[in-house]
Each structure stands twice: as structure tokens, then as C-alpha cells.
Write a sequence for this structure.
């Protein structure tokens, strides 16, 4: 693949803790990483800022910046500051410092992409963090199981409502429909050596990228090695009761022409041969091979950055020596944040708020 000394050009698409896990992994073998982040969150600190200022929700973007911050003392300090959440009962209670900083920069520069670039410079980020759209989006979902008649379909609007529904999510769409993508995100996908989609909240952080026409077209046209990373388990709310196979089926329903090279799954999460046969048939719809690796932090439903890095690097044709100094140094404050935060989605509706 590429011989760039910075490593392959990697684009990771997602949001919240799932994208944080991917970025914490790929930064171990590349300094050319672009995060393309969902902008539909309407809960917690992000939701409050979004509704008050009418800007894109900053929480998932803040998380991506934290994952890519410089692996040194200064980068660690700034990461801790951006991730710090105010306590107490006043107007600031529950807000992350980073959310407020991004909101302020966006108002000053009148451009969320410029605001992200400015803060990335402060953090020493190698690469870029981009929103998938410049305007806040809304998730609308078709949900069954909310009425006595299980055939009745109701429409729920909002990321939190979709993530926490006791019903069964059938399909999601974006409002406004067909939003324009951020041009830099489109260019990054077209130039990428590796594109990673997932893990994360399937209906609210992963699938939305395929519903932005310009992003989807770029993904279809890309010659990169395209990898879908599956979740370690179903999430309460939007994917409750989903098998690994079902995750791929709903992905195909939303993007029937989507083609990828590899589906990456945790070996312990899908261990029975019958389950693997089902996953293989579902992956065939994308033209993808399924690779099984041990990916989780033992005893948790969190992807371990080193294991995920090894798996993704192998798919990209890169050898990661276990004694590599740079890799060792990159076990940073941001990765400790991932481990102390618990699962990649600690609670339904709290994705990177």
C-alpha cells in the first residue's frame, strides 16, 4: 500500500465511544487519520448547546479530537481539560469543557470545520476531525412494538428517542434528507488507503454516514481497503436482541449497493460455527470476507485499542512489532479515558454528549 512515512491514509467514520475506539487503534499505525463524525446527537451537553446556539452538536467531535490528541504531557493535559465535565447544579453542570470551547470557536470563526482545525492544532492532532455535515441533523426512525398491534409502525425523531426506544427499530433516515457533505470529508474518503466504518451505535452513529449521498458516492467509488468493524454486543435500545448477522442485514437494507472488503468481528462474540455461517452469508451481500480476531478488553464489551490496531493494520498489510517504541508511547491519556468510560456506549442516549 502507501509508502508515506506517516503511514497509510485512514478515514474512520462513526461517532461517540465506538469511533473513539477506532481512532485510538488506527493512530498506532498512522499519523494520517481523518475522523468523519455524525452530527445528529440531541442529548446531554451536546443537545443543550445544539438547541441554544443552533450549531452542530460538539460532543462526538470532541471525543474524536481527544482520541487523536498528541501523545505527550501537553496533549494529555489538554485532553483531560476538554473531557472534564462540570459538576454541581448550576447552568454549567453536565457540560464538557471541550463542548463549550468548540461552541465558542464555532461562533467566533463562523465555521465548524475551521473551529475543529483550530482546536486540533492546540491538541497536536495528527490528521483531522471533520463533521459529516455543516448543519445539525436529526435521526428519524420507523419503529414497531410500541403499540398493542405489533404491525403498527411509529416514527420517532431524535437520536436519544431512537437510542432508548423499547420498540424495534426497522429503518432510519436523516432530516433534512440528502444533506450536503463537508467537502473535505469527501476528499479524504477518495484519497484514503483504508476506510473503517464502525463500531458504534448502529442506527445513530454508523448507518447515518451511508445516508449522506456525497459520502456514500465517495465510499462506493473509493479504491481503499474498506472495513466494517462489528460491535461486540447488541446495545440496549436501538439494537436490543440483534444478532451479529442482523447488524449486517440492516446495514444492507439501508445501503443495498454498498461494497466492502472485510467485515471484522470479535472471535469470542461469534464463536459457534452456525453463527459464523450466518455472518458469512450476510457479509456476502457486501462482497466482503469475514475476519475473526480477539478484539475486546477481557471481560468487557469495549474494543481494546492494541488488539483492534493489530487487526486493522494486518488488513492494511502493515506489520506492528510488539516492541515498537512509538506504539508503546501512544498509550495515551485519551485511551485511558476509553477504558475508564466503560463500554463504547456506556448508556443508551449518552453517546459522546
Amino acid at each position: 500500500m502507501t509508502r508515506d512515512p506517516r503511514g497509510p491514509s485512514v478515514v474512520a467514520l462513526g461517532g461517540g465511544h465506538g469511533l473513539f475506539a477506532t481512532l485510538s487503534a488506527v493512530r498506532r499505525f498512522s499519523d494520517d487519520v481523518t475522523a468523519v463524525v455524525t452530527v445528529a446527537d440531541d442529548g446531554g451537553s451536546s443537545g443543550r448547546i445544539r438547541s441554544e446556539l443552533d450549531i452542530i452538536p460538539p460532543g462526538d467531535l470532541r471525543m474524536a479530537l481527544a482520541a487523536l490528541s498528541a501523545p505527550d504531557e501537553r496533549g494529555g493535559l489538554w485532553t483531560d481539560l476538554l473531557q472534564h465535565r462540570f459538576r454541581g447544579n448550576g447552568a454549567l453542570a453536565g457540560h464538557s469543557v471541550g463542548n463549550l470551547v468548540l461552541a465558542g470557536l464555532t461562533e467566533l470563526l463562523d465555521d465548524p470545520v475551521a473551529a475543529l482545525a483550530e482546536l486540533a492544532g492546540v491538541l497536536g492532532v495528527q490528521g483531522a476531525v471533520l463533521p459529516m455535515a455543516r448543519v445539525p441533523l436529526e435521526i428519524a426512525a420507523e419503529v414497531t412494538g410500541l403499540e398493542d398491534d405489533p404491525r403498527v409502525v411509529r416514527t420517532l425523531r431524535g437520536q436519544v428517542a431512537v437510542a432508548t426506544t423499547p420498540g424495534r427499530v426497522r429503518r432510519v433516515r436523516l432530516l433534512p434528507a440528502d444533506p450536503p457533505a463537508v467537502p473535505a470529508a469527501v476528499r479524504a474518503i477518495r484519497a484514503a488507503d483504508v476506510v473503517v466504518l464502525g463500531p458504534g451505535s448502529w442506527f445513530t452513529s454508523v448507518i447515518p454516514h451511508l445516508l449522506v449521498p456525497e459520502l456514500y458516492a465517495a465510499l462506493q467509488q473509493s479504491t481503499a481497503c474498506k472495513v466494517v468493524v462489528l460491535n461486540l454486543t447488541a446495545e440496549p435500545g436501538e439494537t436490543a436482541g440483534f444478532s451479529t448477522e442482523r447488524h449486517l442485514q440492516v446495514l444492507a437494507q439501508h445501503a443495498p449497493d454498498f461494497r466492502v472488503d472485510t467485515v471484522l468481528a470479535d472471535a469470542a462474540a461469534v464463536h459457534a460455527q452456525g453463527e459464523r455461517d450466518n455472518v458469512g452469508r450476510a457479509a456476502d451481500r457486501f462482497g466482503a470476507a469475514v475476519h475473526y480476531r480477539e478484539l475486546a478488553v477481557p471481560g468487557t464489551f469495549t474494543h481494546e485499542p492494541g488488539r483492534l490496531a493489530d487487526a486493522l493494520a494486518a488488513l492494511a498489510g502493515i506489520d506492528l512489532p510488539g516492541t515498537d517504541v512509538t506504539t508503546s508511547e501512544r498509550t495515551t491519556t485519551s485511551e485511558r479515558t476509553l477504558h475508564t468510560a466503560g463500554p463504547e456506549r456506556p448508556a443508551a442516549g449518552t453517546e459522546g454528549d
